Amino acid sequence: MRLYLGLVHHPIKNKLGELVTTSVTNLDIHDISRSCRTFGVKKYFLVTPFDAQRELVDSILGHWEQDHANAFNPDRQDALAIARAVDSIETAIAQITEIEGQRPLIAVTGANFESFDGDVKDLTKKLEVLNMPCFLLFGTGWGLHPIALEKAEYKLSPIISKNSDGYNHLSVRSAVAIYLDRLFGE
């Protein structure tokens, strides 16, 4: 599977369902990069329209490209090499299309969608039949805003625990790792 991952900071919903931009966090940059690298994701896009946030991401990524940081922890630089900040979902789609020579199927995740298209096995089968790359989007804050969902061609079913009492609010880092394991794990 040719998978690309996007951590979307805009367009996002806040607690009231309003359109917002969320903050980029250092943990998301590092931990999600490591999960992506472990499972063979081709590129990890951090999507934010704010120059200052993209500059922060570039600064963090640049630190690990320096000789002393790379010598201290080469595995970290290896993982972070697949990450990049972009200003929009559309920019990431354009970059994937340039790399792959075709537009990716856009899949989204979320615990509170009204309907779903299937689980990861269904998505994998669809991608095999269509022979397409996939751009899998994860939301921050209270989830992807309807503006982002309009781009989706596939809505993944949520992660649900058999032991759950209805609580379902995983960190995005945890959700990414679980979905990647379901897509690529044994």
TrEMBL record:
Natural source organism: Bacteriovorax antarcticus
Alphabetized CDD domains for the sequence: TM1570-like (cd18085)
Pfam family, one: Methyltrn_RNA_4
UniProt-recorded name of the protein: RNA methyltransferase
Transferase recorded as keyword: yes
InterPro entries registered for this protein in UniProt: RNA_MeTrfase_C_dom, tRNA_m1G_MTases_N
tRNA (guanine-N(1)-)-methyltransferase C-terminal domain sequence ranges: 3-185
Protein origin, superkingdom: Bacteria
Gene Ontology terms: biological process: methylation
One GO MF term attached to the UniProt entry: methyltransferase activity
Keywords from the named record: Methyltransferase, Transferase
